[in-house]
Amino acid sequence: MYKNILIVDDDICLAHAIKLYLSSDERKIFIVDDANSALNLLGLYHFDLVISDIMMPKIGGYDFLIKLRLDPSFLNLPVIFLTAKGMTSDRIKGYDLGCNAYLTKPFHPSELLSIVNNILLNFNSRQYLSKFKFLESLELNSLLDNNKILCKFTSREISILKLLAKGMMNKEIALNLNLGIKNVEKYVSRLLSKTNTRNRTELAQLSWSFNLIKGE
């Protein structure tokens, strides 16, 4: 069965060049030039991989990835960032938001092909169980009551979890709670440690599972 790959890039010439390089009898490649079109297409078809630029009009790649990771349907959809943003801080931000690979332009097509092959070959067998391990560590069977689960967190941590679930970044959380950014970073790090999650998108998913923003 062939794999569906979605390329999201406003550089259409580059997108078509990538399509030609990645195309095979086992793959079907789709191209869109903005994140809104990508989200619409993702709602219509099943995709096995997304390759996205970061610097795009309207919705940038980072915000696009946040939207994907906050939707349970796309939580584990592999995403490769292919971008000219090559600073270490840019790459860290991409991985913190949940991308699976980060490749900077200019790139060697063979490297992209190797990354794509590796993800398509191995992703289905990978088990991202961090949040489930966390729930097991809390003995979920005896903690089905959300109130008991939430007792594991301080009131400040719960406030931050709520804002994470709404897709807010550290700066926005700091402004909303009248905290310094460094303090917010410390709280987020503490939450990651408490929950055995890898990044803020998994924290947000936990918030949704606990219904922290229900009714808001």
From TrEMBL:
One Pfam family, short name: GerE
Domain Response regulatory residue range list? 4-120
Which residue range or ranges hold the HTH luxR-type domain? 146-211
Name the SUPFAM superfamilies for this protein.
Answer: C-terminal effector domain of the bipartite response regulators (SSF46894), CheY-like (SSF52172)
Top-rank taxon: Eukaryota
Q: Which residues carry this modification: 4-aspartylphosphate?
A: D53
The identity of this protein, by name, is TctD-like protein
GO cellular component assignments: cytosol; protein-DNA complex
Query: What does the UniProt keyword field contain?
Result: DNA-binding, Phosphoprotein, Plastid, Transcription, Transcription regulation
- Listed GO MF terms: phosphorelay response regulator activity; transcription cis-regulatory region binding
From the UniProt record, give one GO term of the biological process aspect: regulation of DNA-templated transcription
Database matches in InterPro entries: CheY-like_superfamily (IPR011006), Sig_transdc_resp-reg_C-effctor (IPR016032), Sig_transdc_resp-reg_receiver (IPR001789), Tscrpt_reg_LuxR_C (IPR000792), WalR-like (IPR039420), WH-like_DNA-bd_sf (IPR036388)
